[in-house]
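G., before I forget:
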Amino acid sequence: MIHSPEMDQHQFLRLMELAGPDTAAELLRRLTADLDTVANGLRQGFQGPSPDWDAVRAHTHVLIALAGVAGAVRLQHLAEAMNLQAHHRDDAGLDAKGADLMQHLSVLVGFIAAKSARTGAS
Amino acid sequence: MTTGRHRSPTAATDAQPRPILLIEDTPSLQMVYRSVLASAGHRVSVAGTAAEGLARFNEVTPQVVLLDLVLPDRDGLDLMQDMLRMRPETNVIVITANGSINKAVEAMRAGAHEFLVKPFDEQRFLGAVENARSAPGSRAPRRPAPAPPQPKLAGAFLGTSETMNRIQSKIRSAARSMATVFITGESGTGKELCALAVHDNSPRAAGPFIALNCGAIPQDLLESEVFGHVKGSFTGAIADKPGAAAAADGGTLFLDEICEMAPALQTKLLRFLQTSAVQPVGATRPRKVNVRIVCATNRDPLDAVRRGQFREDLYYRLYVVPIHMPPLRDRGEDVIEIAEAALVRFAAEEGRQFDGLDPEVQALFRRHSWPGNVRQVLNVIRNVVVLNEGGRVTLRTLPDDLADLDSPAHITAPLPNRARATDNTAPDELLGRTLAEIEQIVIEATIARHGGSVPKAARELDVSPSTLYRKREAWLKPLKP
């Protein structure tokens, strides 16, 4: 079980710096919304007797970039691996890899949402 | 995007440059990219869909467009081509994720100025934008990049083996004529590079080189892709489209995976070759064009003719100067030369320092059969460069699946012997059949052995699942006599 994302903190701080104090809250809100969309899409993609590879490919495609901008290095690599797997429609070890990916994604969503709440409150 | 500190050296000094157009559909990414550009002093116009992007393009006439290739309402590549048709001087930087590099390469061929793979760092992002802003506008009409970076570094023409010397000599001779060149060879052997070499060494090198993959375009769109269409000729034809044959006027049209072309279109291609005239879908009269045809396939074209999948008269019209690209396993020491060259190139791209291949690695590379040919070598070297900091390339640094091949368990007898020892199919049952029939029997039997799982069968057969899907689709659609 992981509780905090494996983050490049410098990357995340630079992201906040780039957004600036006026728009950091809005950026975090949009990030949370985009990550939620990806999480829902992946959840549906993994459901059913066989995966919906097109959905998995499309949502991991977005997740690679989102995790990358947030500095969530481990999640980015997991998304890249899953995207490749979706391209090959290769279901080897999919349950474990999918669960790992979703867990890291969920932790990042929680992390960003917490930052968002704090930024919005300040 | 990974960030670093960087400011544009010139943005602040420009007098009201035109805004940069950013087309990206993910709201948070759109906001991040816009922030980075704004922090470097750029004015930015943003759009979240292709339709909105096209409207902004007409409104702000940007010199530079940052374009995500995956958009919700339309393929980014199509949008780019429309924009370049309208204003060829625009420099388009395409953005894609790691799994879609092929698409970025396709975009480069279609005239993109540069491509960025997500996530990219801030410095690289701003550097690409600065390059695009300072680059002169492209010629009009824009000619697709003759030497896209990815295939060039593929190194298919590296190597000094006698086999490759013969190929290069043949290309030089064939290039000077107008004769149709028919390239055959396994996947990854460099058939498209060969086609480009024919074009680049020909008197039409200054003209366009238009590549079309007949196996990658849905059959119902292929005619429009090759011959074009006029506005309103079918649902979705919202504007006139010239088609690849007209776009290649004065240059070379490369038809890859030619054996996958639908029978009806084969007839039209034959007529085009006979008359040198194209008639777009919905057009009332044909138009003369001056095009040299180069085509390629990884199948045996004569076998496709025998099976009734490829027109015999078209085959003889196309099969004028055949060039067979040899598999890497038949190219002796070339594999080492290609791997070393790729190591230098990729290390420079990734900002790392490597000291060549360890002798054990060289020995493994010589032993390996490289079913994916040059492409596979490049993938292995890219993997090594990306996942290691530098130093000498040893067995330990190789991808696991390749290094494992060196274990005694994987050093096996050549395939025919192994097949005799383990296969339940009596060889006598296969005798008298064509090679294509044998291939089909073996593929279907392997899929059945894996309970219908194509990916698992593909793993055993050491091909990509898409190869099996494509073959099975072709078997379901035999050519009607």
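DSSP finds four helices and no strands in chain A. Residues 9-121 of chain A form a domain with the Four Helix Bundle (Hemerythrin (Met), subunit A) fold (CATH 1.20.120).

More on Monday.
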